[in-house]
Specification:
Layout: H1 3-21, H2 39-72, H3 88-116, E1 124-131, E2 134-139, E3 144-148, H4 154-157, E4 175-178, E5 183-189, E6 194-198, E7 203-207, E8 213-217, E9 223-229, E10 241-247, H5 249-271, H6 276-290, H7 292-295, H8 313-317, H9 319-328, H10 343-355, H11 359-362, H12 370-377
Parallel strand pairs: 1-5, 4-10
Antiparallel strand pairs: 1-2, 2-3, 5-8, 6-7, 6-9, 9-10
Helix pairs in contact: 2-3, 6-10, 10-12
The structure holds copper (II) ion (CU).
The site of copper (II) ion has 7 residues, from loops.
């Protein structure tokens, strides 16, 4: 049970209490499950309501009999209790009736389950991979691949500024799918167990390393739909939302070609033979924007607070760790991840720090080229 879940639960309980106390007309339906936007999610909703009403009927009958008996057979009215111990008719009845009720519920439930577990290929097939703590999407037909990271500002998370509308439910790259097409998701994970949950599509599927689970959807209504990882997967479990944008086919095609073009441009930039000078020239401005506040223009940092990059062992002699620090940040320190910078910017700023302030002369002098960053980002399996 995630913290977010508890929070939601708390909100639900609070709003339930509010409804009882508020004289105005309350929104009871907000307490119920939502219908979602697909045929399957509607079916699931209907099923939920059907079972709910069956439970209500059972509740009314059972409690009715109970309260009636308590009233009609008090000791005063009936001093001698009836004995129907080992009454076969009653025993058969209370075995058969629940059995029939269960069968009656199992039939529509199984029908819907069979539809949900259809794993035939879709018009579009997307491999979804869970990572600590982000999702990767691979469009198998269209050759598009990207990571989708939480984009909520750290300041909102740290309560420094008010929370935005889609707090913890926004990402830097949405999954885009076309309307009216069967989209199959092949869901897996790369580290621990995650779970891909998209309530509006009634999809909730475990993402397990070494296994591929499938789920599918066909959405007929364009729009932006939000979900999240729903398997406790570590420290940032509440920080790996899912956002799916459903668009018309032509818009989807445009998106795919835009993605491909960007990938090509990036490939050109990253495969280009960069010289140290070119990287340093670019890196200087990246450093000025992103790093000077802490590490200072002269690379000396602020003693005791921000370490000097001039003469730092990592910057001098440990290229791998240098890349890792920029990509992941340092946990528990003011050094945040800069993975949102482009490969070129990252390579440039790292090279700049490795070539400036005497570092070039005192260290191994190795530069970092964009390809190193691309390699770092590749899934390590
Ligand atoms: Cu997760």
């Amino acid at each position: 049970m995630s913290f977010k879940y508890l929070q939601n639960l708390q909100i639900k309980i609070m709003s339930a209490l509010l409804i009882f106390s508020a004289p105005m007309k309350a929104d009871w339906f907000a307490l119920n499950m939502t219908r979602g936007v697909t045929d399957i999610s509607n079916e699931v909703f209907e099923l939920h309501m059907l079972i709910f009403w069956i439970c209500v009927a059972i509740g009314v009958v059972v409690f009715g009999v109970m309260f009636y008996s308590m009233y009609a057979h008090t000791k005063k009215k009936n001093p001698v209790a009836a004995s129907f111990h080992e009454n076969h008719k009653v025993e058969i009845a209370w075995t058969i009736i629940p059995f029939l009720i269960l069968i009656a519920m199992a039939i529509p439930a199984s029908k819907t389950l069979v539809k949900i577990y259809d794993d035939e290929a879709g018009d579009l097939n997307i491999q979804v991979t869970g990572y600590q703590w982000k999702w990767q999407y691979n469009y198998l037909e269209d050759d598009v691949s990207f990571f989708s990271n939480l984009s909520t500002d750290m300041d909102e998370i740290n309560n420094l500024v008010p929370k935005g509308e889609n707090y913890l439910q926004e990402v830097d790259e949405m999954v885009v799918i076309p309307v009216g097409k069967k989209v199959r998701f092949l869901i897996t994970a790369n580290d621990v167990i995650h779970s891909w949950w998209m309530p509006a599509f009634a999809i909730k599927q475990d993402a397990i390393p070494g296994f591929v689970n499938t789920a599918w959807t066909k959405v007929d209504k364009p729009g932006i739909y939000r979900g999240k990882c729903t398997e406790l997967c570590g420290k940032n479990h509440g920080f790996m939302p899912i956002v799916v944008k459903v668009v018309e086919q032509n818009e989807y095609d445009e998106w795919v070609s835009g993605k491909k073009e960007a990938a090509m441009k990036m490939a050109e930039l990253t495969t280009k033979d960069w010289t140290a000078e070119e990287l340093v020239a670019r890196g200087e401005s990246v450093y000025a924007v992103n790093c000077v506040a802490c590490h200072q223009t002269n690379g000396q940092g602020i003693p005791g607070i921000f370490p000097a990059l001039a003469g730092s062992d990592v910057v001098l002699n440990n290229k791998e760790r240098n890349i890792e620090i920029l990509m992941e940040g340092v946990q528990g320190a003011a050094m945040n991840s800069f993975s949102y910078l482009s490969e070129v910017e990252l390579a440039a700023v790292i090279t700049y720090t490795r070539q400036s302030w005497g570092n070039k002369e005192n260290g191994d002098g190795e530069i970092v080229v964009p390809k190193d960053i691309v390699d770092y980002k590749k899934p390590k399996i």
